[in-house]
Specification:
Chain lengths: ~170, ~170
């Protein structure tokens, strides 16, 4: 059987919201999150992600992450951290074209005996009008079942974007 | 039905240096996945592969509006970085070489048809060239708030021998 994607949840933002939550992970399949046109109402705020447990974002300090940041205008950099209370992506802006897009794969979310893992690929224009991309991943070091993810900001609101959770079958 | 919808399936013609997939982006989807496999070249010297977009007028966009960056990961030497701004095409996204040293890509395109947004891409490639291997992780953006309807692949030298290009749309049902 050819692998396919099954839509589990989606949210298209049409008015300001402080966060977007996608839930519905209830099987041991790999899941994928696709985001496009993610835009904000406040300049230079950081986009971030948390896993959700029973629909609520888990803000405990159990996130480890690592990524290579690609820049179209300057030397690439590295981002890493342990025991964080969220995954931070980059500084989002409000000028023309300053939007972000993501492909995130989620692993082991439904397994209460395992950690939750994610791989992240992004491309965006940040608040300094730089094309950048984040290539890396994260792990939430708690043995618990997680049912989704939440996107939020360091401040301000999300004003546009389509956020969709798929199951890979 | 899968939310990953096949839109086009193109077998590359032998002896071309560019490939245009026209009218593959539409209002039906905002995110596209492109797979390219078995991309080979007719010469023993590897060709660099670049991407461009095609606008709604059917023209390949060659304006100096591409920003792009790539992490190059060779199997036999140090890793490298490539970056450009305000250029007429993306950076090198991968290579094509003489069979069996082929190349494969997975590319995501975001917002191509939206004329209120820039068009973004993420690319992942593995190429076998000159008895070695190159992996590439790349990003890019076409800084035009304009509708793109197609995708254009260029080889830097000589011609391409083979390649299979599939374009999928990621369906979103509200």
């Amino acid at each position: 059987m050819t692998a396919s994607l099954v839509q589990v949840a989606t949210n298209t933002v049409s008015s300001s919201v402080s966060s977007v939550t996608l839930t519905g992970i209830n099987s041991d399949d790999v899941y994928m999150v696709a985001v496009n046109n993610f835009d904000v109402d406040t300049d230079a705020v950081t986009s971030r992600l948390r896993v959700t447990v029973s629909g609520s974002a888990d803000g405990t300090s159990n996130y480890d992450q690592a990524a290579r940041i690609l820049f179209a205008n300057t030397t690439f950099s590295t981002s890493s951290g342990q025991n964080l209370n969220r995954i931070d992506f980059f500084s989002q802006g409000t000028n023309t074209g300053e939007q972000s897009n993501f492909i995130i794969y989620l692993y082991n979310f439904n397994n209460s005996s395992e950690y939750c893992f994610g791989t992240v690929e992004t491309t965006a224009m940040d608040s300094n009008a730089r094309n950048l991309g984040r290539q890396g991943g994260f792990v939430h070091t708690v043995q618990q079942a997680c049912d989704g993810v939440q996107f939020s900001l360091s401040s301000g609101n999300i004003i546009s974007g389509t956020f969709t959770l798929y199951k890979v079958v | 039905m899968s939310s990953l919808r096949l839109i086009s399936d193109t077998a590359l013609e032998d002896g071309v240096s560019t490939v245009s997939i026209e009218n593959c982006f539409s209002a039906d989807f905002d995110i596209y996945k492109i797979t390219i496999d078995n991309l080979t070249h007719n010469s023993g010297s590897p060709a660099e592969i670049y991407f461009k977009f095609i606008n709604s007028s059917g023209s390949v966009v060659s304006a100096s509006n591409y920003d792009s960056a790539s992490r190059r990961m060779p199997s036999s030497s140090v890793f490298g970085e490539t970056r450009i701004q305000n250029h007429t095409q993306t950076v090198i996204m991968g290579y094509a070489d003489l069979s069996p040293e082929g190349s494969g890509f997975v590319v995501y395109i975001f917002n191509p048809f939206l004329d209120s947004s820039y068009t973004y891409l993420i690319s992942q490639n593995m190429s076998a060239v000159s008895a070695g291997a190159y992996g590439q992780k790349s990003i890019g953006v076409l800084k035009q708030e304009a509708s793109m309807t197609g995708f254009h692949i260029m080889a830097s030298s000589n011609t391409l021998d083979s390649g299979n290009i599939k374009i999928y749309g990621l369906r979103v049902d509200s």
